[in-house]
What does this fold into?
Amino acid sequence: MTSEDCVAVCGGTHGNEMSGIYLAKHWLRDPMELQRSSFAVTPFLGNPRAIEKCVRYVGQDLNRTFTTEFLSSTEVEDEPYEVVLAREINQTYGPKGSAQAFDFMFDLHNTTASMGTYLIVDSEESLLPMHIPCPIYLYKLPGEETYSINSVAKAGLGREQLGPQPQQVVRADLFSQMRDIIACALDFIELFNKGTVFPAFEIEAYKITGRMDYPCYPDGEISAMVHPKLQDKDFLPLNPRDPIFQTFSGEEILYEGNTTIYPAFINEAAYYKKKVAFVKMEKHTFSIPGLQRD
Amino acid sequence: MAASCHLKPLSCVAVCGGTHGNEMSGIYLAKHWLRDPMELQRSSFAVTPFLGNPRAIEKCVRYVGQDLNRTFTTEFLSSTEVEDEPYEVVLAREINQTYGPKGSAQAFDFMFDLHNTTASMGTYLIVDSEESLLPMHMCHYIQMHYTRSPCPIYLYKLPGEETYSINSVAKAGLALELGPQPQQVVRADLFSQMRDIIACALDFIELFNKGTVFPAFEIEAYKITGRMDYPCYPDGEISAMVHPKLQDKDFLPLNPRDPIFQTFSGEEILYEGNTTIYPAFINEAAYYKKKVAFVKMEKHTFSIPALSSSRVA
It folds into this structure.
């Protein structure tokens, strides 16, 4: 692979996920921490209006807006703020899929779910991020177009998810962890650019297979909560007939699948609107080939 | 010891969920009780569940125009209707009509108000002051009969301050605050705890109404003395986070020179007060707007006189 010259770090793609927002603001005031000798790092705030209001988004989720449909649509009046913003970001750090696009983009997120620290990559075929030493969640469903902000940069995408942290809150411990992981990832890019050979390896990663919706009343209101035995058990095995929901009257609802799966984003605040209780994943082992720069 | 007190039995009790539209335990509990009111039934009084701020609940935000739970003051309640006033001012006047009027003989006898916090405060009970006898006895009863977790008492009203919360519309009130829970999320464990504590409190009212004599007692409670603001840059942005050593340490002693903040560059800021205090609402999401990092409290022991209901002949 060619060396990485232009790297961006985005905080505040969602305006209420505070670790990345305060980190990006900190780096904008004091960029020295991000400096490396072989490449430039540009911090930026993803969704300024959402950050100002401290909400996830103003019109629509910015992190679902980087598809061909939105990026190549012609400007019209009254389109959602995030569609206009996505086109601007695509101009600055892309265009997506072109030779001029930034080489790499980090995107910093938090979750209210108990997921610890995870690196989210689109698929195992993205070699560079797979080499970064961090537990990995592969988010792209087969056949699906990439839609996230870091898909604007060249193939080789990374995103961090730290939790649990409530929306609108910054915890100093998670802030420090996020900053240290970015530092580690930048060190990796520096080594890569300077010609280090990274040997092949085998790695375990979690791959999304679908989503589990909340049960609902006929009027569409959710009728049950994540079961206490499932709460905070992200990335632990969920077996057939394990309890997954508890109704407001106290009854249990069991998992009816046939195989063991690994849930994540259990009880993520932002997914209530979509009535999604958790994401279902399978655990795989991938063989990742060796990597070095051209 | 002070003489025992007699109060009239309670007949009208209200339970409010969703005073803040993104604090989900109370919202889902109130919705559950509105679908299925049997759980709240007691023989000696009526219980009315309701949703405090419907528009904020619909949008899943704390409030739409202004904080409903700061709007029950004389200034807002007796102001004349004008165009373009905040939604919550109109709403507060309607709630005051239905469950008050505040300070009158027609007001509801008791109102529970259900809240969550993003701070690690466990389960605690909020009363305006130690002079509110019935709520203090209710708290004592809850502490003795709900043993799953300690339920410390937080006295929120500063001396000389007017009451402003939704449950000040009723003759007496109690707020429950459970955390940590992120905004917009309902955790089943906290939901169950909140429901069980309300059941316990309703049992207390039933016993009180039926003539039980509750003896005098001594009780520890935390009383607010002030607030600690975040340090800020000249442009007004906060310049530090709650220190990791203070994070999640609600109700534990904070001593002079203990670390309280950590700047974004990693430097420590120490507590400069002269005495040990007890912090609460550490890193509460809703307080960032006000730049408040935590609330400062002192621990006191109060003597509460005996209580029983007066029987109308």
In short: DSSP finds six helices and 14 strands in chain B. The interface with chain A takes residues 28-29, 31-32, 36, 60, 118, 180-189, 191-192, 237, 241-244, 247, 262, 264-266, 283-286, 288-289 of chain B (CB under 8 Å). The longest strand of chain B covers residues 217-229. Chain B has a mean pLDDT of 94.
